[in-house]
Amino acid sequence: MDFAGVYPYLVSPIAADGEVDEPVLTRLCNDLIAAGVHGLVPLGSTGEFAYLSWPQRRRVVEVVIAAAKGRIPVIAGVAATTTAEAERQAQELAQLGCDGILAILEAYFPLNDDAVYSYFSAIAAATPLPVVLYTNPNFQRADLSLPVIDRLSRINNIRAIKDASNNTGRLLSIINLVGDRMQVCAASAHIPACVMLIGGVGWMAGPACLVPRQSVTLYEHCRAGRWDQAMALQTRLWALNQAFARHNLAACIKGGLIMQGYAVGEPLPPQSPLSEQGQLEVRAALELVGAL
């Protein structure tokens, strides 16, 4: 499976009664597909997976798969503190019909490299689906080191990595290390055009929910080598990334979607809604790129 392109990390709209707001999520998926995105990723960081019960997580994935109708792949997030639970989630989501797994490690106690490797390799062994590794050192207790990434890249169905550090040099190190064994995707902490310039294949991130057409255009400029046009667009888009860095990510995406007419609700407690200042910054960033 090719993970090149724009893969938005979807929000999880949860109604007051705790149920997934299916019409809102379905509409968002359909609009993103119409905008040309290359895949959908439920239960990433933007999807607030850490704040959802398993029945809520499962339902989010069911709704997204039903909305996609096979038009583009659905890569569903698996996240757990135990290997057994991660394996169970991967198997259950595969049975629902998703096209790939986004593997996330939740850790309370620190883990050494061998433990981190065993967790991700167990997820890959639990399902024949392609697996994307997701590491976010800003939030995770245990990170994926370069030696572990190298070992994991040699497992056949581990096909890509999204490294959400803000260290673009680390991405180049990963690209140099894994060669053609694994694709590398940019996160919202990176400048996507720069990542694609050094060999990355696209963008997996929440902001693409708000600016899907602009994100696809940026990707197409990069793929065609139109770097001047890519950087002109990237410069305008960067204001969104700066807002996300200053405010809660889920609050920014949900707040922006509400501005665009999607009743996705507030971030799940105990997270705070987007502040007044945050709303001003997100609105200004969206207006700058014609997304509002």
Question: Mind sketching the topology for me?
Answer:
Elements: E1 5-8, H1 22-34, H2 54-68, E2 75-80, H3 83-96, E3 100-105, H4 113-126, E4 131-135, H5 146-152, E5 158-163, H6 168-178, E6 183-186, H7 192-197, E7 202-205, H8 212-223, H9 227-246, H10 249-259, H11 276-288
Parallel strand pairs: 1-7, 2-3, 3-4, 4-5, 5-6, 6-7
Helix pairs in contact: 1-2, 3-4, 4-5, 8-9, 9-11, 10-11
CATH topology: TIM Barrel
Low-confidence regions: none
Provide a count of the helices.
11
Strand residues, percent: 5-15%
Spatial strand arrangement across the major sheet: 1-7-6-5-4-3-2
Portion in helices: 40-55%
**Total tally of structural domains:** 1
Could you please describe the fold and organization of this structure?
With 292 residues, the chain is an alpha/beta fold. It has one domain: Alpha-Beta Barrel (TIM Barrel), CATH 3.20.20. Strands 1-7-6-5-4-3-2 form a seven-stranded parallel sheet. α6 links the parallel β5 and β6. α1 crosses α2 and α4 packs parallel to α5. The model has no long low-confidence stretch (mean pLDDT 95).
Summarize the structure.
This protein is of the alpha/beta class.
